[in-house]
Amino acid sequence: MDLGIKGKRALVCASSKGLGFGCAEALAAAGVDLVMNARGAETLEAAAADLRARFGVAVTTVACDVTTPDGQAEVLAAADGPDILVTNAGGPPPGLWSDWARDDFIAALDANMLTPIALMTACLPPMQARGWGRVVNITSQSVKAPIPQLGLSNAARTGLTGYVAGTARQVAPDGVTINNLLPGIHDTDRATALDTGVSTAQGITMDAARTQREGTIPARRYGTAAEFGATCAFMCSVHAGFMVGQNILLDGGATNATI
Ligand code: NAP
């Protein structure tokens, strides 16, 4: 399917690997020029070189922490009013509700709620002025059903979801869509970190921890960054203009809900 976005410009945050890279890769395959971002310059440059070589698109890299005001200013300057914005950042650490104090919540809110909001606040007006734009926020299945050990994620991402629900409907008249993409367990470094947590907590091997977690997913496997990215690219395509303020869950059926 031709996604109809060849030649558009996208800012894809936190995209040197994992789900962000999957999104950058699928957009590059659709002919979209990219601004890619991550904190580590070396991996970021390698990822950008890979996409330039395979897809012939222009890729600018910005090595910075996108959760800081300076980092946001840097990526926004490089992207210069993009047609497509994909927000992403590392997730909050696991723990128990009794572990966290105000500063922990502020950090999670900064990274996973206020950062995407700041980026949208900057990118939406030029999209509206052009009469076309796409925003996809990478959130989590924890928005649909809470994950006990990820209370900081549950809280921050649900706040973002409420913001998107209201804002998406205010920019839709201008041809701009905002939607959220909710990963369940995907085969990335983040999943390995969470497997490690299970392995340590239960005193079992990493393989056993993975098998245990795969057993909770009806698809009986982790998702891949490539299939996540393909869904993101579709949500950024010309075909998804009637999708407004939605929360698209990619979890292999793990969330046991009718709707
Ligand atoms: P990942 O494989 O660890 O990749 C994270 C990417 O983001 C890397 O490129 C990393 O590069 C970059 N990054 C992290 N923090 C950053 C920051 N502050 N500023 C700029 N770049 C940053 O993680 P992932 O699995 O793709 O997860 C992406 C998001 O989806 C996370 O918020 C995660 O919590 C959420 N999620 C993931 C899963 C899953 O199973 N994978 C499930 C639910 C939700 P640097 O480290 O070099 O900055």
Care to describe what's here?
- Belongs to the short-chain dehydrogenases/reductases (SDR) family.
- This is 3-oxoacyl-ACP reductase.
- It holds the Pfam family adh_short_C2.
- InterPro entries: NAD(P)-bd_dom_sf, SDR, SDR_fam.
- With 259 residues, this protein is an alpha/beta fold.
- Helix content is 47%, strand content 14%.
- The chain contains 8 helices and 7 strands, in the order E-H-E-H-E-H-E-H-E-H-E-H-H-H-E.
- The chain has helices spanning 18-29, 41-55, 69-79, 102-130, 151-171, 189-202, 206-214, 225-235; strands spanning 9-12, 33-38, 59-63, 84-87, 133-138, 176-183, 247-250.
- It has a 7-stranded parallel sheet with strand order 3-2-1-4-5-6-7, sandwiched between helices.
- Helix 1 packs parallel to helix 2, helix 1 packs across helix 8 (225-235) and helix 4 (102-130) runs parallel beside helix 5 (151-171).
- It starts with 8 loop residues before the first strand and ends in a 9-residue tail after the last strand.
- The mean pLDDT is 97.
- It binds NADP nicotinamide-adenine-dinucleotide phosphate.
- The site of NADP nicotinamide-adenine-dinucleotide phosphate (NAP) has 28 residues, from helix 1, strand 2 and helix 6.
